[in-house]
Amino acid sequence: VDASVYTLLGVNPDAQVPAQEIAERCLLMMVNEAARCLDEGIIRNARDGDIGAIFGIGFPPYLGGPFRYVDSFGASAIVDRLKHYQSQHGERFAPCQKLLDMAARNERFYS
What we know:
Helix 2 crosses helix 4 (66-73), helix 2 crosses helix 5 and helix 5 crosses helix 6 (97-105). The chain contains six helices and no strands. It has 111 residues and is mostly helical. The protein has helices spanning 4-9, 19-39, 46-56, 66-73, 75-89, 97-105. It is globular, with a radius of gyration of 16 Å.
């Protein structure tokens, strides 16, 4: 490995990130993008998004898909976690408008 790449990227290769945090960060980014896709009309409904995410991109099936995942914790909790990571790692973790609106209205994807 060319160690100079770490300086260019501003990455510390000695930093230890807990496996749970790595998994949560990846999962939250997938959830955020799924909600954005629904909001932009790329997918028709939450059910199609859940099925597509599980069979198409490897979303963990035991979590029910990104939309079921949001419903299991509540949009407010998901938005809070995204904002936490946004404050630490930047705008790529900014919650999409759909999740912000759902959190404000205490809405769910499924009734």
